[in-house]
Amino acid sequence: MRSERKTRVLVVDDSALVRKAISEALSRDPDIEVVGTAIDPYDARDKILKLSPDVLTLDIEMPRMDGLTFLQLLQQHRPMPVIVISSTTRSGSEAALRALELGAVDVLCKPSSSYSIGELGFQLAARIKVAAKARMGLASPVPVPDRDRGARAAASASVAARYSPRQLVVIGSSTGGTEAVKQVLTGLPGELPGICIVQHIPPVFSQAFAERLNRCCGFEVREAAHDDELRPGLALVAPGDQHMAVEWGGSRYRVRLNRGPMLHHTRPAVDVLFASAAACPGARVVAVILTGMGSDGAQGMKKLHDLGATTIAQNEETSLVYGMPKAAVELGAVDRVLPLGLISNALYQAALEQAGPAGVLSRRETEPHAVNQSR
Predict the structure, then answer these.
(1) 22-46 b/e with 16+ CB inside 10 Å = b?
(2) Which of 36, 43, 41 is CA-nearest to residue 19?
(3) Which of 174, 206, 276, 319 is catalytic?
(4) Is 31 a catalytic residue?
(5) Diameter of the chain by CA atoms?
């Protein structure tokens, strides 16, 4: 159904070809109005004051002032939803993640040719309409210093005996999730079961995202590879454009990657990961769903919930976009709805409770598909 008021967009890019291509692509959507274009941040500043757009699309590499500097100033003085259009280079990936830290709602890859930007049409339009509803002005997380890798490795070496190899932490997120995931992970100790993360993110950015997390977490974080073994003290991030599932391999979980059909218009999909965890006999799972558009993860979390997993969702007040957590709550799949700042501790406590006495199997291990009747 067409909305009563169109979403007003300002396109900021120093390339006339790019500005024209993006404007034409967005103009095909009846719910979007491109109210203007700007050639650089100074021009954008004047256009924002004059045109009052709802959302900006922003290039990073521009003359006179780079996009990151402009974004930082904009979010300090006039917070508004921004979608960054970034190059697919290594530096572009790092800049895109920095843009998300500075308050950008989303990032998209800039195609190799200006003429092919029209290919982004549907995807960009959909994200713009979500961005227009984002909760801007949320408190920024406290910056986290890089962790010492030697100390981290020593800590993780003593973890394995504490947890059952059947324990697993799964996390799913989308819009606003890169910063939410970082805040959750950096609030955790190195003493945790293996962690799998599905974040909706373009493929060229997922490796840089994992590497950035690895620098600031108390445990190892890296992009997952097919057949990786999951272990305590390790977190694996699903590669962009690949579904990630887990499979019990006799003594340890292994990761399976595939390029199967998109689910919820995305790949990787949180539901694929969550459903695979629910299918593992004897799994002891803590599942977390964070900010994001749509309903991805709700069905998989419901399967886990009904099998006795501990399920946690981010609350509306701290979610940039309260879509995925809301869908899970409405489905009856969530045990606890918490502010972002309290999720780390809740996750850690749940993992400790699931560990139980050493050498004692839980009912979920002896009856892997029984529903927890205490709920």
Answers:
(1) bbebbeebebbbbbbbbbbbebbbe
(2) 36
(3) 174
(4) no
(5) 68
* Token pair in block for residue 15: 């390339």
Phi-psi label, residue 87: left if phi above 0, alpha if psi -120 to 50, beta otherwise? beta
Name the residue among 312, 307, 238, 239 with its Cα closest to residue 273: 238
| Sign of the torsion formed by the C-alpha atoms of 22, 123, 267 and 278 | positive
Burial class of 82 by CB neighbour count within 10 A (0 to 12, 13 to 18, 19+): buried
Q: With beta carbons less than 8 A apart as the criterion, state whether 214 and 221 touch.
A: yes
User: Tokens at residue 148, please?
Assistant: 């010492």
Three-state secondary structure call for residue 169 = strand
Cα-based distances in Å from 338 to 90, 316, 341, 347, 352: 35, 9, 8, 11, 18
Which residues are CB-contacts of 80 (< 8 A; sequence separation ≥ 6)? Answer: 48, 53, 54, 55, 56, 74, 136
**Is-catalytic flag, 206?**
no
Q: Over the stretch 313-370, which tens digit does the pLDDT of each residue have?
A: 999 999 999 999 999 999 999 999 999 999 999 999 999 999 875 433 333 443 333 3
User: How many C-alpha atoms does 336 have within 13 Å on its Cβ side?
Assistant: 18
Report the alpha-carbon distance of residue 354 to residue 282 in Å, rounded.
12
* Catalytic residue of the set 156, 296, 344, 362: 296
Q: Measured between alpha carbons, how far is 83 from 11 in angstroms, rounded to an integer?
A: 10
Is 27 tagged catalytic?
A: no
Catalytic-role residue among 40, 54, 59, 200? 200
> Does the global pTM surpass 0.85?
yes
